[in-house]
Amino acid sequence: MLDGDAVGTVWDLFGQGYIPHNVVLDHNMEVVYTDAGFNQSAILAAIDAALENVPMDADDDGLDDPVDNCPNVYNPGQEDIDLDGLGDACDICDNANVWVLGNTNGSVENGTVTIDIFDVLTLVDIILNDDTESCGYETANINMDSHVNVIDVIGLVQMILNGTFGGTAIPPGDGNFDILHTENGDKAVISSPEKISGFQFETYSTEVSVADLNKIVLPEGWSLNYSQTGDKLRVLAFDGSGQNPRQKIEFSLPNISATSFQNTVVSSPKAGEIRMRFSESGAFGQFGMPNTPQIQSLYPNPFNPVLSVSFSLPTESLTKVTVYNTLGEIVDVIENGQMMKAGFHTFYWDAADQSSGMYFIQVRTGNHVDTKKAILVK
């Protein structure tokens, strides 16, 4: 290192009059080590640390390895036809000629890609087994929303029937996922004005058995599939005919609750996601007659991020369930003034997009109002 210039002016980068004797600079010419003494191990350690941060270009294509989508294969153009982050030059899946959108099983006949019902079945297997590493997975995101689920199954069915898939520009409306406890047993009811062509959910064998799944009867043309890993069950049902969507799907399962159904996705016939609103209700005979409309429980409390709101109605009533913050502002409307039958009801509020703090849950039926507080802790 040069300690001074020709006229003896001292280089004072490290302080007036300071002369560095041992200095290590990194590739950006920034000082990473300096010491007037000599400590060989410290100097070598500083050099090694600096070298680890030097960008490498193993394939000499002009792109540093951290940003090169094929760091060991020369590909200056960075072509990536399937946009999976792995360049075509090193992607083992031929996304240009074989593994194209929808060809989940990679079938080619006489040089032509074939997309048919077998691709639908393969896609179902990919979803149920969470097979994210296969070439088939790279072709499975039919609606290009970055998620592979039952919506893509419906999109692929429509692609096969219509020869193409353009998706839907207008998202479908909301739907209801109701758990009904009756004297004749428990049942799940999925409903939507936009009609339903498929659904999936996750549950546990301690709540829903394989034997009970095998007893479910669905509309004509529909298929129910499931996989089991340990005690976890992943269930997917869809209209394989593409011609029999329903506004209501219901099936009986013993001893279920709304919490028995996790990661639920429901698809419209045009492969749009129907956002579900969960509720649970039971007959008075099971729980005892309430005297007035009232909130029975907010559980868990504190919660993060889903809160179950359970309340009772002694008579059929127009009912509104609203969430307020501490300023008295409406944060969310869980149920907006629908006519609800007498009995016990449970709705679920997902506060994932809310900040930690206290909230007030209000149930209003006619002139009666009941309010309780819940605390969100993230």
Topology:
Elements: E1 22-25, E2 31-35, H1 40-52, E3 108-109, E4 112-113, H2 117-128, H3 135-138, H4 150-162, E5 175-182, E6 185-196, E7 198-204, H5 210-214, E8 222-229, E9 232-239, E10 246-252, E11 262-267, E12 276-282, H6 284-287, E13 294-299, E14 306-313, E15 317-324, E16 330-340, E17 343-350, E18 357-365, E19 368-376
Parallel strand pairs: 5-12
Antiparallel strand pairs: 1-2, 3-4, 5-6, 6-10, 7-9, 7-11, 8-9, 12-17, 13-14, 14-17, 15-16, 15-18, 18-19
Helix pairs in contact: 2-4
Largest sheet: 7 strands, mixed
Helical content, roughly? Answer: 10-25%
Cα radius of gyration in angstroms? 30 Å
Name given to the CATH architecture of one domain: Sandwich
Summing up helix and strand content along with how strands pair, one would put the structural category as: mainly beta
SSE pattern, N- to C-terminal: EEHEEHHHEEEHEEEEEHEEEEEEE
Strand order, main sheet: write it out.
10-6-5-12-17-14-13
How many strand segments?
19
Q: What separation lies between the terminal Cα atoms?
A: 53 Å
The geometry reads as flat
Any low-confidence stretches, pLDDT <50, length ≥5?
Answer: none
Proportion of strand residues: 35-45%
**CATH class category of one domain:** Mainly Beta
CATH topology of one domain: Immunoglobulin-like
Helix count from the secondary structure assignment: 6
Q: What's the pLDDT, averaged over the residues? A: 86
